[in-house]
Amino acid sequence: MEKIKKIVLNNIHLKILSLLVAFLLWLNITSTQKTQIEFMTEVKIKNQPKNLIIQKIEPSKVSIKIEGIRSKLNRVNISDIEVYIDGKKLKKGKNLVKVHVSPRFTESFTVISVKPEKVYVYTISK
After folding, report:
1. Which of the two ends of the chain, N or C, has the fewest CB atoms closer than 10 A to its terminal CB?
2. Could you tell me the residue range of the domain that residue 5 belongs to?
């Protein structure tokens, strides 16, 4: 029993210091590690023409994948990421339109992918 006690207590200050250094290294690695979040969101329309009525957007939701440092990504409010199509060039009938994301990148994250990249917008005249 004395032998075990002597092994444990021998150089105890160095053992505590090494545990502290190991913990700080682990904390640094996990906080600077990049991670990805994927979420579904609804597509909105900007600059909708006044002479057209939007019947349907297909698909109405798209998958967005963002990447960033875990500690910063945890503070991102997903509702602040705007997913939209520009309605300036919409015509009557079936339109294939590119999906835009705003902002594409910030200090907190970068948009990695938008799936699908284009959606169908069905319109009729007013």
Report:
1. N
2. 1-31
